[in-house]
Amino acid sequence: MNIQFFTNQVKQNENLAFEEMVNACELVFNEETPKEDIKDFLLALSSKGETADEIAALATVMKSHALTVPVPEGKYIDNCGTGGDGLKTFNISTTSAIVLAANGVSVTKHGNRKISSSSGSSDVLQALGIHTEFTTQDSINLLKQEGITFLYAPNVHPKLKRIGEIRREIGKTTIFNMVGPLTNPVNLTTQIVGINRPELVTDYADVLRILGRERAVVVSGTQGMDEASLDNGNKIALLENGEITPFTLNLDDLGLSPAPVSALRGGSPEENAVILRELLKGKESAYFDAVLLNSALGFFAYGIAETIKDGVDIARESILSGRALTKLDAVIEFSQELLKERTAL
């Protein structure tokens, strides 16, 4: 059976069952499958609209092809979003990951270079001085030392190189955006995921349940922003003990100032690195409030904060105390020391 069989089903607006999608995805990862056929399949799925079963199946296949990252036993969170919202916001989740780690949360941040945004998480990290050429052991050592690590997708998903080329040719969001946060090679206990499909928030929480998360928060902001936005238009679901509960946020209750999505627009990796560092120095702005809100959801998902309001307070203190900036500088130093050691060899 070739991939065109499944593409034809999808083009007839038929959803693929979990097992059918597993078979199709194995063909996507097969080097023998022509690139044009894979592109056709991904575009057909995007046109139809991907289902929870299709996303869960791809996540299962993709994770089965990932490298093993043998981290110590522990409670780990990722706050990687799907990307693909086209809004070109600055790197909110990367900044929030540093804020979380500065307050004792163990973060294994999955990320990539830009595919459908101006600056992916790996792009801004590189601009900050955190390189992406970590070996698996480097990633584990950073996690042990600083309570945070960055897992660069091409390093832990070696079979993604060819698919990455296809995605760049497509140049817009595909199911791989939806599945990225689900394929962290570390077994996560909890997660916060921003997605660009508000209508899929509850279904996405169900995918996380199927994949074994004990607790998770899924959010889609205004205009399908793949982070929580600074207004009352966020669609959010909490997964806890197998139960999924939708909930809403009121910014007034959280002490945050409303701002349009346009106020969160970033620029090049270098420009975003400046925004990130100034923010961690305590410069208040819409960027600052967006990081407080998204960090708060992370603290809430992890269980450190009992309420989102508590999470906002913890995030604010983490930044204004200087701990978050200190954490960033420690990670940069770790990265730079590695480079020096390699240059000396």
Walk me through this protein's architecture:
Helices cover 50% and strands 10% of the residues. The chain has 345 residues and is an alpha/beta fold. It has two domains: 3-49; 77-328, 3-Layer(aba) Sandwich (Pyrimidine Nucleoside Phosphorylase, Chain A, domain 2). The strands form two sheets. A five-stranded mixed β-sheet has the order 1-4-5-6-7, sandwiched between helices. Strand 6 and strand 7 (243-247) form a beta hairpin. The termini are far apart.
Summarize the SSE layout with pairings.
Elements: H1 3-11, H2 18-28, H3 35-48, H4 52-64, E1 77-78, H5 92-101, E2 107-111, H6 121-128, H7 136-146, E3 148-152, H8 153-156, H9 160-170, H10 175-179, E4 190-194, H11 201-210, E5 215-220, E6 235-240, E7 243-247, H12 251-254, H13 269-280, H14 286-302, H15 308-320, H16 323-344
Parallel strand pairs: 1-4, 2-3, 4-5
Antiparallel strand pairs: 5-6, 6-7
CATH architecture of the largest domain: 3-Layer(aba) Sandwich
Summed up, the domain count is 2
CATH fold name of the largest domain: Pyrimidine Nucleoside Phosphorylase, Chain A, domain 2
Order of helices and strands: HHHHEHEHHEHHHEHEEEHHHHH
In total, the number of strands is 7
* Class per helix and strand makeup: alpha/beta
> CATH superfamily of the largest domain, please?
Nucleoside phosphorylase/phosphoribosyltransferase catalytic domain
End-to-end Cα distance, whole Å, is: 49 Å
Sheet with most strands: 5 strands, mixed
- The DSSP helix count reads 16
**Largest sheet strand order:** 1-4-5-6-7
As a percent range, the share of helical residues equals: 40-55%
